[in-house]
């Protein structure tokens, strides 16, 4: 099948939620490269939107998935599962969390976190503490509760009435946050770096102050680490940059390296609000998804990928900042680790993405910001090659 055969079939049969897709289809990936159905090679600087952390077809990863598939894919959460228990232990040992629950996506993990925050106060006899504060321009997912949590009208407008109880405040505005807090405040949910809206990191002081207010007032502090987690920002979890430990945080995207899995991770005092029957999942944390995630952690350790993300990310940002000094249409370079945004003075990011695609580089774009999210295995040499092409295009 050619790409245009696939596109025609898609247009006839697939709901049009993704519109005019980029006119390419891939049949094989290897490392940071993707091979199209027409035999061309692309360099992947998007990693399936921050998913393919260990790159494509990593031999150890493929082996782990194949071995698991040969033995057992799924049995349901009625039974104990070795891979699930080991993955939970792994996350607990490396993070602020004491307990973990597995879901199948980022939105679903965030739903779990929202439910956990609500039930925490409910079980303390305070069901009036149900309001959750999120940020304007945030992104928390596409389910009904998570579009309500997402502080962007464009995602929620058609779906009113929305799940009640969400309040939105502008990022980095402590006064606005304080004004939104009341006896009803249940939790605050934050992305440490807002990803989908264009790579906007939160200020250190802001996060610390919000965190302190939360501790004072028994408000749960939730980090949405769906995109920023798993080494993307040069630390395993982005909250580590802020010197805080969230009560609850969520993971998904890179956790399974391409196999769908999400996680709700929490401190014991919050996690213990979930009692048998309060939450659940059919697929969540099945042996295949957990074997994939365990392999991701294993490869991270063997290949020092979190460190690589920090070092190559710093190098990348340095190169981009030097370039920006000579290119007036670049307004700002933002990001941490390998989560990088190039903001232009005009809405040309889509055009830049298109031109990079013509030169066989895959990136992402919002109106004014080009988003760069390479696999964490990327090298300085790969960055140099990208910079060369980017300079030519600019
Ligand atoms: C991608 C993303 C989500 C949604 O994840 P899905 O797996 O698409 O449901 C939630 N929060 C953040 C911060 C994200 O980047």
UniProtKB/TrEMBL annotation:
It catalyses: N(2)-acetyl-L-ornithine + 2-oxoglutarate = N-acetyl-L-glutamate 5-semialdehyde + L-glutamate. The modification N6-(pyridoxal phosphate)lysine is found at residue 253. CDD domains: OAT_like. Its main location: cytoplasm. It comes from Congzhengia minquanensis. Its cofactor is pyridoxal 5'-phosphate. Keywords: Amino-acid biosynthesis, Aminotransferase, Arginine biosynthesis, Cytoplasm, Pyridoxal phosphate, Transferase. It is found in: Cytoplasm. N(2)-acetyl-L-ornithine binds at residues 142, 281. Pyridoxal 5'-phosphate binds at residues 106-107, 139, 224-227, 282. The gene is argD. It holds the Pfam family Aminotran_3. One of its GO terms (molecular function) is identical protein binding. Belongs to the class-III pyridoxal-phosphate-dependent aminotransferase family. ArgD subfamily. Its EC number is 2.6.1.11. This is Acetylornithine aminotransferase. May also have succinyldiaminopimelate aminotransferase activity, thus carrying out the corresponding step in lysine biosynthesis. SUPFAM superfamilies: PLP-dependent transferases. GO terms for cellular component: cytoplasm.
């Amino acid at each position: 099948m050619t790409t245009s055969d696939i596109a025609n079939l898609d247009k006839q049969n697939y709901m049009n939620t993704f519109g005019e897709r980029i006119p390419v289809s891939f049949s094989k990936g290897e490392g940071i490269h993707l091979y199209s159905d027409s035999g061309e090679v692309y360099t992947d600087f998007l990693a399936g939107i921050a998913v393919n952390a260990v790159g494509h077809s990593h031999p150890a990863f493929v082996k782990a998935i194949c071995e698991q598939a040969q033995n057992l894919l799924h049995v349901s959460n009625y039974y104990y599962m070795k891979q699930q228990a080991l993955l939970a232990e792994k996350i607990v040992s490396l993070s602020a969390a004491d307990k973990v629950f597995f879901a199948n996506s980022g939105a679903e993990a965030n739903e779990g976190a929202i439910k956990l925050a609500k039930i925490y106060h409910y079980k303390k006899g305070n069901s009036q503490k149900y309001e959750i504060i999120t940020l304007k321009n945030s992104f928390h997912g596409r389910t009904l509760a998570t579009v309500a949590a997402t502080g962007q009208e464009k995602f929620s407008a058609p779906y009113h009435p929305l799940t009640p109880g969400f309040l939105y405040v502008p990022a980095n505005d402590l006064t606005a946050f304080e004004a939104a807090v009341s006896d009803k405040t249940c939790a605050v949910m934050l992305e440490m770096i807002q990803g989908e809206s264009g790579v906007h990191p939160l200020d250190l002081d802001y996060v610390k102050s919000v965190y302190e207010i939360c501790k004072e007032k028994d408000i749960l502090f939730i980090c949405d680490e769906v995109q920023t987690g798993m080494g993307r920002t040069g630390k395993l979890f982005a909250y580590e940059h802020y010197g805080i430990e969230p009560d609850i945080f969520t993971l998904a995207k890179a956790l399974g390296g391409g196999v769908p899995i999400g996680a709700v991770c929490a401190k014991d005092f919050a996690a213990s609000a979930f009692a048998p029957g309060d939450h659940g999942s059919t697929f969540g944390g099945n042996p295949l998804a957990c074997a994939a995630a365990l392999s991701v952690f294993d490869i991270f350790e063997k290949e020092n990928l979190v460190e690589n993300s920090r070092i190559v990310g710093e190098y990348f940002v340095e190169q981009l900042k030097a370039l920006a000094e000579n290119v007036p249409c670049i307004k700002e370079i933002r990001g941490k680790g390998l989560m990088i945004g190039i903001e232009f003075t005009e809405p040309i990011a889509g055009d830049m993405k298109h031109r990079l695609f013509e030169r066989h580089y895959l990136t992402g774009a919002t109106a004014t910001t080009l988003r760069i999210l390479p696999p964490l295995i990327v090298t300085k040499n790969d960055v140099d090659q990208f910079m060369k092409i980017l300079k030519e295009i600019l």
